[in-house]
Amino acid sequence: MLGxxxxxxxxxxxxxxxxxxxxxxxxxQELDDPTLAIEDLLGFQGMGGAAVVQWTPFGLGRRxxxxxxxxxxxxxxxxxxxGLHRAAHYSPAVLNGxxxxxxxxxxxxxxxxxxxxxxxxxxxTGPRAGLIxxxxxxxxxxxxxxxxxxxxxxxxxETGAPIAVHLELGTAGLExxxxxxxxxxxxxxxxxxxxxxRNPDPRVQREIAETGVFLAFDGPSxxxxxxxxxxxxxxxxxxxxxxxxxxxxxxxxxxxxARYAAEGPGMRYLLxxxxxxxxxxxxxxxxxxxxxxxxxxxxxTSWRK
Length: 305
Hints:
This is Phosphotriesterase. With 305 residues, this protein is an alpha/beta fold. Helices cover 39% and strands 11% of the residues. The chain is built from eleven helices and nine strands. Helix 4 packs parallel to helix 5 (143-159) and helix 9 packs across helix 10.
């Protein structure tokens, strides 16, 4: 949020989280309290965290100007996203205001700066986004996903920004990778697929890794999503297959109830609980790579026009 940095300066990174997030699909669970956001950041920072990548895209209350202020106050690296989530998250007014020119919206956020509030066609000022966040469909690539993924590929070509993709319940990873990398020509190492742990099929995870994209394992402590208890097995299998350099770890806090202040796992859970468990299983060097070296490559911007 405070300008480009050398990737080597990123440090211990939460590769997928949300400090601000508001969707009509989660009424009453908005992440919109700056005080609680700062508390979550401080908890992560106090455990050694240095950077947080916020995947909240355009139109969902990302509050980039507040993110920039928080980053400066706490001395942390905070990366914000442009992009567009699944259509179900938006009101028709927001979608109708941007879908006709998604490439321009994405590129302007990345190059010119983000608007104070996410109103269609509001002038861009201030901090820039650092990645493009879009979404696949459930077990496939629907028409909305095809539209946003295609726009993301064009915006990547113009800016060099990485593309992060929400996989609905962890599905359609291969289809998304095929569209972005094979059909639209995005280099695989510029693509990050999220929520791979929500669909813990080891065969599919390995096939996705073989495409060369980054795999984000995020959303810890969601017992009903088979996340934590299968995480070590999935990561160990991918490391054994030679894909350790493509793995990322994140928290994906999306509701107010998940905040640490609300007795949820909070952002610090990644470092207080998951990392010690994974270190015992995989070794400190591999886990450190997932937190430091891999994010530094995944979130680097290759070039800007």
